[in-house]
Write a structure and sequence with these properties.
This protein is of the alpha/beta class and about 55 residues long. The chain has one domain.
């Protein structure tokens, strides 16, 4: 199992990438611009979210 840092994890490309990596059994760290509805959707998964503005 590897750990991946995904920037733009709530965007059109990042969201399916995060989903795929989790399905493959990897750990994911998500870098999000701000806490909003989209970042809340992924925070319940096994993802470490880091907010940067």
């Amino acid at each position: 199992m590897k750990t991946f840092l995904i920037t733009g994890s709530t965007g059109d490309t990042g969201t399916p990438t995060v989903k795929y990596l989790l399905e493959q059994g990897h750990r994911v760290k998500a870098l999000v611009r701000r806490e909003d509805e989209r970042s809340q959707k992924i925070s319940h998964r096994k993802i470490m979210c880091e907010t940067r503005e």
